[in-house]
Amino acid sequence: MGSLAMFLSVAEERSFTRAAAKLGVSQSALSHSMRRLEARLGLRLLTRTTRSVAATDAGERLIETLRPALEEIDYKLASLTELRERPAGTVRITAGAHAARAVLWPAIDRLTAENPDINIEVNIEGGLVDIVADRYDAGVRLGERLEQDMIAVPISPRLRMAAFGAPSYFAEHGTPQTPYDLAKHRCISLRMSSSGGLYAWEFERAGKELRVKAEGQLVFNDADLIKAAALAGHGIAYMLEDHVTKQLNDGSLVRVLEDWCEPFDGYYLYYPSRRQPSPAFSLVLDALRYRQ
Predict the structure, then answer these.
(1) What residues does 92 pair with on adjacent strands?
(2) Does 65 share its domain with 113?
(3) Which domain, by its residues, includes 127?
(4) Distance (Å, rounded) from C-alpha 4 to C-alpha 7?
(5) Do residues 143 and 275 share a domain?
(6) Sign of CA dihedral 281, 287, 290, 292
(7) Phi/psi of residue 56, each to 5°?
(8) What is the pLDDT of residue 217?
(9) In CATH, what number is assigned to the domain containing residue 58?
(10) Same domain, yes or no, for 137 and 167?
(11) Whether 48 and 126 share a structural domain
């Protein structure tokens, strides 16, 4: 099974270098193992170029067979931890930066201190991730972006966006009264790492929804830089309100268009419905579950 697991890792990573690092083996040993596997099966499983590695048709068929089989083995092994006095094992979660810092980390901090045999890996991703293909135990998404075939558990309260700027900016340029007025203002935009496009500001009031293409002199793909630019008086920014709660309270930033920023479903931890949670995962799930 070792060479088959190695093959699956190479196919998923599309790179011998990345797969070797992930598996903790040398690249030459991994390459040798793949050649022996192909020779044993009498099939070409991987197509190698100078820049990437891709599975052949035979390789793709083998992946379809291997992936559920290896997942089942992982779950069976994880279930053996029930025989231990203390839950143990590794839980892998993918999440966006804000969810990881604001929601996951406080719970993980407490949980790992109380359960030294549980290991947690959090990978921050800017776009949507296939948690089954990438072999994550769970992912974190906003409620409105959940897939129907997943079990979803709320792990945060409802969220709200905020449009804001420095007092000095509004003193010079005036205050927008509706989202339409933003066209006359300097807006500090967010570049989406997943699509490469600019984030369209979404507003809602009394059931009426608006999407505004915010434009201005500055564009960032980092929330902290956007906040810094707003504090320095460069324009109006738009992000989750808990990023700027302190600054709104102390007056260094001023909120605008508040009546156009209605709450929406918060973060959910989601995982495949066919999976039987391990004791370690069940503990993580319970620690993260939002309780009103």
Answers:
(1) 121
(2) no
(3) 84-157+266-288
(4) 5
(5) yes
(6) positive
(7) -75, 180
(8) 94
(9) 1.10.10.10
(10) no
(11) no
- Residue 76 within a domain: no
Q: Whose structure tokens read 């066209």? A: 183
Torsion angle (degrees, nearest 10) of CA 34, 35, 41, 44: 90
Q: What burial letters (b/e) apply to 116-152, b meaning 16+ CB within 10 Å?
A: eebebebeebeeebebbeeebbbbbbebeeeeeebbb
Give per-residue pLDDT as tens, 5-26: 888 888 888 888 888 888 888 8
> Has this prediction a pTM greater than 0.90?
no
Q: Which CATH number belongs to the domain containing residue 167 in this structure?
A: 3.40.190.290
Specify the residue for token string 């790179």: 15
The answer on 223 and 175 residing in a single domain is: yes
In the structure, how many helices (H) and strands (E) does the chain have?
10, 14
Task: State the DSSP string of 161-219.
Answer: EEEEE-HHHHHHH---SSGGGGGGS-B-EEB-TTTSSBPPEEEEETTEEEEE----S-E
Helix axes 2-13, 57-79, angle to 10 degrees: 120
Output b/e per residue, 210-234; b: 16+ Cβ within 10 A: eebebebebbbeebeebbebbbebb
Residue 27 belongs to some domain of the structure: yes
* CA 86 – CA 121 distance, rounded (Å): 19
Give the total number of structural domains in the chain.
Answer: 3
CA 168, 190, 240: angle at the middle one, nearest 5?
A: 75
The verdict on 147 and 272 lying in the same domain is yes
- Same domain? For 242 and 173 the reply is yes
**Residue ranges in the chain modelled with pLDDT below 50:** 1
**Is residue 77 one of the residues assigned to a domain?**
no
Evaluate whether residue 75 is within a structural domain. Answer: no
If one counts every other C-beta atom within 10 angstroms of the C-beta of residue 155, the result is 22
Residue 278, pLDDT score: 82
Q: Does residue 243 sit in helix, strand or coil?
A: helix
d(CA 30, CA 9): 10
Read off the amino acid at residue 85.
Answer: E
